[in-house]
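Field log, afternoon session.

UNIT: design team B
ACTIVITY: writing a sequence onto a fixed backbone
BACKBONE:
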């Protein structure tokens, strides 16, 4: 593609301005599109920050489309962090772009197969619980009605809450798929979607599926010119790239989960209605029936051993109020009892898996029961894999740089369980070797990637640039919005800090200030917390008072994210109180959102095991974990929260930060300088409401 082709789309008088009513030329959008085009032409890596309002989606989609039209033998994958953006690109942006440009290529949406309903497994589940399925108010009844109507079969399109365990029994599980032998292969939702991705030249995917594909290829030494979990592809665009490290870390963490292990055990031995268990169905075809009894003995013993280990850990962690815990090499000597209690678990998983393998090899089940043999093998291997994680954790001499930690989880019934996890200390080598080096073009973009020194912090966390010989391009295109005119930033220097030994004065201050600020703005507030406990406490104090003033308060936890945002947008005088997941991805232009209150700077909890281990590693090497990870990460998140306010040129409002460290600590000024420059008057707590009212109503 040529530069002229890009200009013809984005320049004044170009395709977008001719076909898009109200389109405004944006220099940053044009320049970003030219950079993306250069990355395609030079087989380079591009890191680009595009401020709110630049229109970054079109800026990378247009070059991807032009390239697809010129090179029909190549494929681009666009991966997002959130389902919302993934669907926006596929359902809104791309169809609009095709219409405006008068051209198109085949595009497909790709999500993990576990997001699709499996017709075979669903119908089996329905038949097992026929009476329940006939109840239109039950989960199974609603699913039955939905399954008849849905075109996508995707869980995200299911309109009701759904228990995870139920979905796990009916989703499209790759290990359990019968492929061509399945009687529903032709109508399978996942197979239909897979065929569309094979035909597409642009695939809209997500970070998790991308990492799944990259890991599979890396482990199997498969290149990207052949099909993997995703079809072969040559070019990659990573949107919401500020989340790459977190998402990759989550994906590459190995986990022993007692609840999931026991669920797999239960599936192996449970009966469903009149149907016998997996082992009972197959034992009559086994030359040595006694082997099935020995497997059932192992299942019973293993269930007890898992419970014993879990009870030991729950009792142990009750002493620190069930907080996640990092285990360092220096603390291994204190884990002797844990290792003794854990040994029967992982030894039994290994022993049971060997017996199951022997049972399957000797079994003469007829063809119609082959899928039962496969399911038995899959369940056994998943149990063995979790046991292997536990075994690795207990093999103290083999510990390398990986992070070893315990994570208490609370079930819906308030019961505790203890996950045991192993996380890579540094995710960058995996990203470079499994992904970045393999692609002809990589474009990483977000509204928040740079700090005062550019992309050094973000790049150091993901391994970019990795090679001086590879073209490495960068671009920063600030938002076209007039922040100085339209955004008031208030940072009261006299706001108190939390004293954990006596929190009441702080909570009282926060509650009263938030209440008065929302009154001053007439609602339309997004209140961002870093602690759910603090959110609930403040909400309990101010919600009745705001209700008395005719102002509705929405709160994270009382409904799902989509429903909360929909209610917030529909009632422009409502206020939404939320925590971490709402610091980004909230898009509420207009009067709906006119006040963002950031209660506390979003520093990571210092005791978070992965965060602490990474900071400690930097400290040991002579650096500063606080300066090199904690502060940059917090500044990035602050930029995300700050960016919730102005979503269009007409938007106007206030960002109030109730954390005096922003003004009183030496690092605070640097954090403010990383935000778009706005109207930032000197503020005290007593002048907050006056500033809000003057800015909103008297200017």
């Amino acid at each position: 593609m040529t530069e002229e082709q890009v200009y013809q789309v984005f320049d004044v008088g170009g395709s977008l301005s001719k076909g898009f009513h109200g389109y405004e030329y944006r220099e940053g959008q044009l320049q970003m599109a030219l950079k993306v085009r250069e990355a395609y032409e030079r087989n380079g890596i591009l890191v680009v920050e595009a401020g709110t309002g630049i229109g970054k989606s079109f800026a990378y989609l247009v070059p991807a489309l032009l390239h697809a039209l010129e090179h029909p033998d190549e494929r681009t994958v666009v991966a997002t962090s959130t389902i919302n953006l993934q669907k926006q690109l596929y359902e809104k942006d791309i169809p609009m772009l095709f219409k405006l440009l008068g051209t198109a290529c085949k595009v497909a949406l790709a999500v993990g197969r576990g997001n699709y309903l499996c017709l075979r497994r669903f119908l089996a589940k329905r038949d097992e619980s026929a009476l329940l399925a006939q109840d239109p108010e039950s989960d199974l009844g609603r699913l039955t009605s939905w399954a008849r109507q849905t075109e996508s079969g995707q869980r995200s399109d299911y309109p009701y809450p759904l228990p995870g365990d139920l979905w796990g029994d009916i989703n499209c599980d790759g290990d359990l798929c019968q492929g061509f032998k399945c009687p529903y292969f032709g109508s399978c939702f996942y197979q239909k979607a897979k065929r569309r991705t094979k035909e597409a030249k642009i695939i809209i995917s997500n970070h998790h599926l991308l990492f799944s594909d990259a890991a599979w290829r890396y482990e199997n030494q498969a290149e990207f010119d052949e099909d993997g979990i995703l079809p072969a592809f040559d070019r990659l665009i990573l949107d919401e790239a500020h989340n790459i490290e977190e998402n990759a870390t989550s994906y590459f963490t190995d986990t022993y989960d007692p609840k999931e292990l026991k669920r797999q055990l239960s599936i192996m031995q449970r009966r469903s209605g009149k149907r016998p268990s997996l082992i009972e169905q197959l034992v009559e075809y086994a030359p040595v029936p006694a082997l099935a009894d020995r497997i059932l003995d192992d299942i019973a013993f293993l269930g007890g051993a898992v419970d014993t280990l879990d009870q030991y850990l729950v009792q142990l962690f009750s002493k620190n109020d069930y907080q996640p815990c990092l285990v360092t090499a220096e603390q291994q000597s204190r884990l002797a009892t844990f290792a003794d209690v854990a040994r029967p678990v992982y030894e039994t998983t290994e022993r049971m898996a060997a017996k199951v393998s022997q049972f399957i090899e000797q079994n003469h089940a007829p063809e119609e029961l082959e899928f039962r043999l496969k399911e038995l093998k899959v369940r056994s291997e998943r149990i063995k894999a979790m046991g292997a994680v536990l075994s690795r954790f207990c093999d103290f001499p083999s510990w390398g740089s990986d992070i070893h930690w315990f994570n208490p989880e609370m079930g819906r019934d308030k019961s505790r369980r203890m996950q045991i996890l192993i996380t890579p200390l540094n995710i960058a080598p995996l990203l470079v070797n499994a992904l970045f080096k393999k692609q002809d073009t990589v474009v990483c973009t977000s509204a928040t990637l740079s700090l005062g020194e550019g992309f050094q912090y973000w790049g150091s966390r993901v391994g970019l640039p990795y090679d001086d010989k590879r073209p490495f391009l960068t671009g920063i295109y600030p938002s076209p919005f007039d922040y100085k005119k339209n955004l008031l930033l208030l940072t009261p220097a006299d706001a108190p800090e939390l004293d954990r030994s006596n929190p009441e004065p702080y909570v009282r201050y926060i509650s009263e200030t938030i209440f008065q600020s929302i009154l001053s703005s007439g609602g339309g507030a997004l209140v961002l917390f870093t602690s759910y406990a603090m959110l609930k406490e403040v909400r309990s104090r101010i919600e009745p008072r705001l209700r008395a003033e005719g102002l509705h308060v929405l709160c994270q936890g009382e409904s799902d994210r989509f429903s909360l945002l929909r209610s917030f947008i529909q009632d422009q005088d409502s206020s939404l109180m939320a925590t971490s997941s709402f610091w980004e991805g909230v898009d509420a232009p207009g009067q709906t959102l006119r006040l963002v209150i950031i209660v506390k700077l979003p520093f990571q909890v210092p005791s978070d095991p992965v965060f602490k281990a990474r900071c400690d590693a930097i400290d040991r090497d002579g650096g500063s974990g606080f300066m090199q990870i904690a502060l940059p990460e917090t500044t990035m998140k602050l930029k995300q929260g700050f960016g919730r306010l102005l979503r269009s040129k007409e938007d106007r409002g206030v960002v109030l930060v109730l954390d005096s460290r922003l003004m009183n600590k030496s690092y605070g000024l640097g954090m403010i300088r990383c935000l778009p420059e706005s109207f930032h008057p000197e503020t005290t707590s007593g002048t907050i409401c006056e500033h809000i009212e003057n800015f909103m109503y008297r200017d």
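LOG NOTE: The first helix runs from residue 3 to 10.
NEXT ACTIVITY: expression trials, pending approval
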